[in-house]
Amino acid sequence: MHANIRRLMLAITLVQGFAWQPALAESGKAVPAPNGITLPADFADWRLIAPSYRTDKHHVRAILGNDLAIKAAREGRTTPWPDGAMLAKLAWKEQANERFPTALEPAAFVQVEVMLKDSKRYKDTAGWGYARWLGKDLKPYGQDAGFVQECHGCHTPVADRDFVFTSPVRLP
Amino acid sequence: MHANIRRLMLAITLVQGFAWQPALAESGKAVPAPNGITLPADFADWRLIAPSYRTDKHHVRAILGNDLAIKAAREGRTTPWPDGAMLAKLAWKEQANERFPTALEPAAFVQVEVMLKDSKRYKDTAGWGYARWLGKDLKPYGQDAGFVQECHGCHTPVADRDFVFTSPVRLP
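ok -> structure tokens follow
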């Protein structure tokens, strides 16, 4: 009986080990933002919307999109983006590649910021839910749900682009 | 009979329209490189290895990896990278976002460069096959297969990193 239980536990451990995916398991640990938005466990697997570089903050960045966002971007349906589209902007501090100093590459992870389109749920902010997680501990940004006014305020200059600054790349 | 043919052609057109995916269909058109390497039709769907910025060329860039490369990167198996791993470095000219000028974003597409690990096939260049396609027409780079010596020469300073400059990002 004990041997059977031990065998069963070993089997469970093996199955868990087999299913384990580093980026997924780790991002799944993020605490939800104060407005209830959760960081999808698979955001590191999303596809490319665009890379970018911030001259003021010295960040190298990548904007990724979930399947719905990528489909909408490729079909040119981004004014407005469809409900369910989700964008994640990943930022790292820059560092010059030590063997190729004119290439600035990711150093410390700074943050991941999310925009989630749900025209009913986020009616007060033009259909967009916002969230931000800071540093490698993915600390949720904001004291309470009011933090989204700050996000939305900064995005208001691009209201005519459905509040998204980035133009998705079109690959040949 | 004519009506039937017309209906059949309409049906074919609809099926083609339904299956059409801009990035995939278009990248599938690239002519193979002079050394026979083909640009995988799905490279725009690969996942993120790292974004980067080139201060000398004023390019924003993204390095993507096929499934095998992403798995190897996440498991830290990159010295050496496993056979079958493929990396694609996408480069665009920079342009300042007109509503947020400190954000440099992709403008015209410059090129996609590929490294493909096959330790038997590319024994002469330390197991790596190289290729580059230029511009939105994806014009293959190089007059003949000898162009790879130029690629490999530039990557030799990072021989101890299995000839890859970029460090894959580790997301929290």
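The longest strand of chain B covers residues 100-117.
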